[in-house]
Amino acid sequence: MMTFKPRTLAFAGSLCLTLAACGGGTSSNNSNSDSTSSSVVTSSQSSTSSASSASSKSRIHVNQVGFALGGKKVAVIPQSEATHFSVINAATNIEAASGEIDAYQQWSYAAEAVGQADFSQLTVPGEYFVRVDGLNDSDVFVIADDPYSELNKAVIKAYYYNRASTALEAQYAGVWARESGHPDTQVLIHPSAASAERPAESVISSPKGWYDAGDYGKYIVNSGISTYTLLAALEHYPELYAERELNIPESGDSVPDLLDEVRWNLDWMLSMQDPADGGVYHKLTTKNFVGVVMPSDTAEPRYVVQKATAATLNFSAVMAAASRVVKPYDTALASQMLTAAKRAWQWAEQNPNVAYVQPGDVNTGAYGDSNFADEFVWAAAELYISSGEDSYYQAINAGSAGNAVPSWSQSLGLAWMSLAAHADDLTAVANKALINQRVTELADAIMATGEQSAYGVSMASSDFVWGSNGVAMNRAMMLVQAYRVSADSQYMDGAQALLDYVLGRNPTEYSFVTGFGARPPMDIHHRPSAADDVDAPVPGFLAGGPHSGQQDGCNYPSSLAAESYLDDWCSYSTNEITINWNAPLVYVSGALETYYLNLSK
């Protein structure tokens, strides 16, 4: 039986923008079971309080990190008798801005009716909070020319903290340094993955990669969308990431640190392709989830499991995209990647409907998918862009391919995202008007949802699923694509609102990124964070977020979709972290940072 430490950290009384978590409240004891928990974190407020006895339920909701000088700035006000709000300078306690609260409305996913307070007119740098008579003040936030650079660095560096097959040294990892685990140089072929060239129980080497989530598995399908999204961030905003140092072992070389980090996972993905036929194994895991231990404390055998169509097409798309991003730095590797992508495509054409089926003796994450039309579109799009071969565009069947917000099981949005980004370089066969139309139609539908929301965020009922915060960030990423093709700033305002949502403008009163905001998660479902001897969790991770499924049986504060969140190890359905939820947060925070810096020039 393992005993877990309580996680307690006192409030600093102001915004936390460093990599160390800041937060507060009573202690919360983790359990060594994935499905049980002993208590729920409660918190006090961090800013000066108005002269009222309002409960914590009546705290003003605001982005706890902050806003750019020229950005949209909105707080959400719980319903009261008040019609007026003030923005107070935290250093002087003097009113810096004021305005009228919009009409109070009910959001069907939360209990309280709320109104919006827009203070976008405030463009003076400083620390502030929002005050409304009869309510608790908001948390303190900053207004600055570049409020998201430290956030962006941290959510990228979270991938370094989740590296497999390496020790994390103190000079890079600080207090989260740890010994190496899972070298994955002696990985077994599971019977489901066996072939004549690689029979069951034979050994291959498949090191590196990122741990997928709170567990220690490595999954191609989820690595696919994660890796692509980080590559897209670098491809779309090269100037930002050329200068962004992350203090990782590769820092200081001639390659952007973001690409160095992505290379750690690309190297692993390449090792998951069967050299005999080009098919790709679905995952590399133990047969069962291990206990809550550090990576170095596990010794269970690890297997590659079944080749499947979804994994192979994900691999094909990512390698095709990676080939063009890597090419300026390593032409030989870029050529290897494009060749691997084409071989994977050929395998998928020959095996177009091989669904992953979880073997009876394997109980780790399935990432099962039985519809591969979207993966074929995505892989064809990336191969077309990188090779220039018209046959791949024709395979997209663009006139019939719709668009959708991306997720690990839905790839259409990624295809149109890449096609739009490269529209000026495509061959004559491409319908550029259709590409832009697909991007803006999806964005307009997302924006319409936000216009109907009392919280002003583009989240609908179907978005409050496992990983709802990742959904929010993927929706924001699709809005950024519409701005990129139209230069219409409304789309960036919509993306800002969704970033505000995950950073505190939500009914739970949490900023959902570890280490950021006045009230970040402290007990994420993440084995290294739970098993180490550090009070604060590993920084820079986006918690999954609220939804009413409550699959883990924990004691939730509400059954309403936007309030059903629990900051406790028990809550793997709302408080786990995964690499695919972090990736669009990297993209969106970097896109907004670039947008606001360009506005200020």
Structure overview:
By secondary structure, the chain is α+β, with helices and mostly antiparallel strands. Helices cover 35% and strands 9% of the residues. It is built from 16 helices and 13 strands. It has a 5-stranded mixed β-sheet, with no helix packed on it. Strand 3 (84-89) and strand 4 form a beta hairpin. Helix 3 (220-236) packs antiparallel against helix 5, helix 6 runs antiparallel to helix 7 and helix 11 crosses helix 12. The termini are far apart. Residues 1-57 have low confidence and may be disordered.
* Major sheet: 5 strands, mixed
For the termini, the CA-CA separation is 58 Å
Poorly predicted segments? 1-57
What portion of the residues fall into strands of 2 or more residues? 5-15%
Q: What is the spatial order of strands in the main beta sheet?
A: 1-8-7-3-4
Number of strands: 13
User: Which shape, going by the Cα principal axes?
Assistant: globular
Helix content: 25-40%
What is Rg?
23 Å
> What is the residue-averaged pLDDT?
91
Number of helices: 16
Structural class: alpha+beta
Helix/strand order: EEEEEEEEHHEEEHHHEEHHHHHHHHHHH
